[in-house]
Structure formats: C-alpha cells, structure tokens
C-alpha cells in the first residue's frame, strides 16, 4: 500500500494513535514498541478480550494503557470509562504516574484508589468517583469498599484491566475480583495481564474472559541483561557479607530484599549506624513515608533500599544496578520479580543471592524454573567456611552452623534433658551446649542402675525435679487465663460508616 507497509522496524506510528497521544510519546522518547506492545496493542484496538503473559520490565503497562487511552480520547464519555485492578498500592501509584506522562497533551483524568489510615484520602477518592474520573486504578479491597456506596456509578465502565493477575490470586483476591466484576456491565472489554501463567490464571480467564486472544512473551525468565550469582552462607555470615558488597558498590542504586519486616528494619538500622545511605521499605510504613522514601531513592539522595517483597512489584526505576536477595524468596516466581527490578529497558544489571542451608532446596526450584544454574561464588576467607550446596538434602532450623539434621540421626523424644519432644534445633544456647546435646551416646552410656534409680525417684517424688515434671504440673494446673474475655468493641468497616470528606484538594491530574 504505502512505504509504511514494507518497513522492517516497527514504530508507534503503526498503531494510528491520536495525534495528542503521539505527541506525548515523542516527548517521552518512545520510538519502537516492545514485543508485548507489538502483539497486544492491535488485539486491544480490535476490541477483543486478551490474556497476556510477559515478564516484568517488558513494557506491558504501556501495552494496555496506550490503546485504552487512545480509545477514550476518540470516544464520547460521561463518567468512569476504565477500571484497572492491581494487587498493591505501589503498583497503583506507578501506573497512575505512567498514565500521567502519556496523558500530558490529552484531556484525561485518573486517580489511584488504595487503602490507608488518612481519612482525607477516602474523601479525595470519593469525590473523584462521584465526578466520573476517566480511569480508576485500585486495589481490590478499597474498590469494593467504595463500590458498596451509591455514589459509585459503575454502569458506564467499558474496559476492565487486571494487572499482575497472578499476584492478586496469590494474595487471595480471587473472590474480590469476582465481586468487583459483578458490579460492572456485562458488555465490556476485559484485559488480563500476568507475569506467569499457572493453572489458576487459566481458570480465572475462563470465568471472566470472552473468547480471549492469548499473547505470551518470555514466560518466567529473567531479562537477558541480568548477571546472576549466589553465595552459600550461614545466617551469621550474611550481614558481614552484605556490608562488604555494599562497600565495593557505593556508586550503584541497590535494592536488598529480605523475607521479614523485622530483618528489613534491623538491617537498615545497622547500616545507617555505619553511615550507609539507606532506608527501609516495608508494609508498616504509612503511604506518605513510602512515597518519600521512593522519591529519595529516585533522586539518588539514598542509594540503598532494604525492602520486603512489597517492592518486588510496583516500582519502575531504570538505573538500579544491583539487586541482593538477603533471603531466598519463598516462591520461584517471586525471585523473577525481585531481580526484574534491575536491567530494565534493555540495560544491564546484577543479582546476588545469599543461600543458607535451609533455603537450598528453594533456590534449586528457582534454577529449575529458569532452566539454568546460577554461578556460586566463593565466600571471602575472612568470613569463615561456607556450607556446601546440597539442594537435595533436607535441612531444618535457621540455617546456622550445625543445624542440619538427617532422618537417621534426628534425636528421639526423651533423649534430651527434660524430654522435649518438640525440639528441632531451635535451642538458642551457646555452641558448647549445642555440641553436648547433639551426642546421641551421652545418655545411652549411663549405667543401667542409675537410670532405674532416676525413674524410681520420679515416680515417688513428682514435682521434686522441675525440668522432668514440668509437663505434669502444666497439665494439672487449671486454665485461668482463657476464661471469658469480654469484647465490647464494635466491628468497624467502610460499609457501616459514612464516608469522610478530607481536605479540599483536587482529585484530577
């Protein structure tokens, strides 16, 4: 037809977007669409439902935002047009900011809808919904809370987008998603985007999509630009190793992922005491504080973030040079999302993981998922001897030295002092007491008459020795602590209290 038909390099011009939207893309230097954008945008423009699978960092947010914004721009609208459902407030804010950039020359409005303790936030969200903001981006619980009020008119919604659908199902939002969909019109276009494609995603797709097209790009594989390495460590070696790595990489922006809020806070506190430019990011932080931390990180006023998995999705920063997994994530898919914070937009990045003995099997599953073996680096000599990588061996305890037990040498009940049947190597005593108690022959070598005397003494004098008779005393003790705890506090929920109006600030962007 024209020269455009024979060109080999794809361009955003191919999609015939509105001129104002193209102006925004040019200003943002969007030239060539990514593979997920090339495949998904034409399908969305045709009005079909879609289930799209693409790893983090591939441009999937723009893949659904751009065609939907173009459609809104070219069609008359009177109220809410599009609903985007996401698992976390961080992702809602990220999408809203990206949408704000695309809509710079367009007359479009949007607002992120998420929970929080600030009553003013609820009021701003309420007014935006009442006024008919073009695009709502929200978490399931908060959307349901608003949709239960009469001011939430959802009958004009034409487009429903589920982003990070796999994550939402992992977080238990399946019923909430269905509850939201029941409040929407039957005639709508539904777009489902996910980083992985487990069976539960297929099941949800059958429930809510109508004859969907399917697009899959690089399922469950990290970006090619990520160099992956790992250290075998005991728990007591991790912090020293972390400090050594951070000292050598003081020019990079770094995210350190931990398994718990406690670890996150303690590590950040200790690094601050050592004058590292660091902040913690976890679910206990208020939203205002989270945004402040992210802004400092983007502006490079701090170079290191210590975070839980709340940050593994929902942050889009191009120049993160290193991701450190202080703890191996529980799920193999979470590993992909964590290290996907680096090497974005076809750049290079590194990922380093600390593996203690009890996490070896989990890391082996990650390697199987990626179909590759991650290089294991030698631990620096000054940190001591490292554990061997034996992923098919089962470990228990906290990953410290001497905490591995096999089925054949695991202590039987009664073989330890006090007969503690629940002992699993969690004794926090010193190494000396650990090594003495781990000798299976220490009691077996006692003369038989000594054991008989001890047994007779126990039968005749119950309660004379506290350690051996504790269980008996506990069982005979009446339960006085669990009797009739009155609870006079009424249950509270957004449904049984009136929405509060917050400060008079604009809801449209």
* Straight-line distance between termini: 41 Å
CATH architecture of the largest domain: 3-Layer(aba) Sandwich
Low-confidence stretches: 1-7, 401-509
Largest β sheet strand count, sense and barrel closure:
7 strands, parallel
What do these coordinates show?
This protein has two domains: 3-217, 3-Layer(aba) Sandwich (Rossmann fold); 226-383, 3-Layer(aba) Sandwich (Rossmann fold). The two termini are 41 Å apart. It has 509 residues and is of the alpha/beta class. The chain is globular, with a radius of gyration of 28 Å. The chain has a seven-stranded parallel sheet with strand order 3-4-2-5-6-1-7, with helices on both faces. A seven-stranded parallel sheet has the order 10-11-9-12-13-8-14, sandwiched between helices. β3, α5 and β4 form a beta-alpha-beta unit. Residues 1-7 and 401-509 have low confidence and may be disordered. The chain contains 17 helices and 14 strands. The protein has helices at residues 19-27, 35-45, 60-74, 89-102, 119-131, 140-147, 165-170, 174-182, 199-208, 235-248, 261-273, 287-298, 332-339, 360-370, 431-437, 448-460, 466-476, and strands at 50-54, 82-85, 110-113, 135-138, 159-162, 189-194, 213-217, 226-232, 253-257, 278-281, 304-307, 320-325, 349-355, 375-377.
């Amino acid at each position: 037809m024209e020269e455009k038909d024979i060109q080999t390099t794809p361009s955003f011009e191919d999609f015939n977007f509105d001129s104002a939207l193209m102006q925004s893309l040019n200003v943002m230097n969007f030239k060539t669409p990514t593979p997920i954008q090339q495949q998904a945008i034409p399908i969305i423009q045709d009005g079909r439902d879609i289930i799209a699978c693409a790893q983090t960092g591939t441009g999937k947010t723009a893949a659904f935002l751009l065609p939907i914004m173009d459609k809104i721009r070219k069609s008359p609208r009177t109220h809410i047009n599009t609903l985007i459902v996401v698992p976390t407030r961080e992702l809602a804010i990220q999408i809203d900011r990206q949408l704000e950039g695309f809509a710079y020359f367009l007359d479009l409005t949007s607002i992120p809808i998420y929970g929080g303790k600030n009553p003013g936030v609820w009021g701003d969200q309420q007014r935006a919904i009442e006024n008919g903001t073009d695009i709502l981006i929200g978490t399931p619980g908060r959307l349901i809370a608003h949709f239960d009020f009469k001011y939430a008119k959802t009958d004009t919604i034409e487009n429903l987008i589920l982003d990070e659908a796999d994550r939402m199902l992992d977080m238990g939002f399946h019923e909430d998603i269905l509850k939201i969909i029941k409040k929407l019109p039957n005639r709508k276009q539904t777009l489902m985007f996910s980083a992985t494609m487990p069976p539960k995603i297929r099941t949800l797709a059958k429930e809510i999509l109508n004859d969907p097209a399917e697009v899959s790009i690089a399922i469950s594989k990290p970006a090619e630009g990520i160099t992956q390495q790992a250290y075998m460590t005991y728990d007591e070696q991790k912090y020293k190793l972390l400090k050594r790595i951070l000292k050598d990489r003081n020019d990079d922006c770094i995210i350190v992922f931990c398994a718990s809020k406690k670890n996150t806070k303690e590590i950040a506190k200790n690094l601050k005491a050592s004058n590292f430019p660091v902040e913690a990011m976890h679910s206990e932080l208020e939203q205002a504080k989270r945004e402040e931390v992210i802004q400092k990180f983007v502006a490079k006023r701090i170079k290191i973030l210590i975070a839980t998995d709340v940050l593994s999705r929902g942050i889009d920063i191009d120049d993160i040079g290193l991701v450190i997994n202080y703890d191996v994530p529980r799920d193999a898919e979470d590993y992909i999302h964590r290290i996907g914070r680096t090497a974005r937009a076809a750049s290079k990045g590194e990922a380093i993981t600390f593996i203690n003995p009890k996490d070896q099997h989990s890391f082996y599953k990650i390697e199987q998922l990626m179909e590759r073996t991650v290089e294991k680096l030698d631990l620096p000599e000054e940190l001591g001897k490292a554990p061997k990588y034996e992923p098919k061996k089962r470990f228990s305890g906290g990953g410290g030295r001497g905490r591995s037990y096999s089925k054949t040498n695991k202590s039987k009940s009664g073989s330890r002092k006090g007969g503690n049947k629940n002992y699993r190597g969690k004794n926090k005593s010193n190494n000396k007491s650990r090594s003495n108690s781990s000798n299976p022959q220490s009691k077996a070598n006692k003369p038989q008459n000594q054991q008989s005397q001890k047994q007779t003494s126990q039968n005749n004098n119950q309660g004379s020795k506290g350690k051996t008779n504790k269980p008996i005393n506990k069982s005979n003790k009446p339960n006085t602590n669990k009797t009739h705890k009155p609870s006079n506090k009424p249950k509270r929920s957004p449904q049984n209290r009136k929405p509060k109006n917050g400060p008079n600030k604009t809801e449209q962007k």
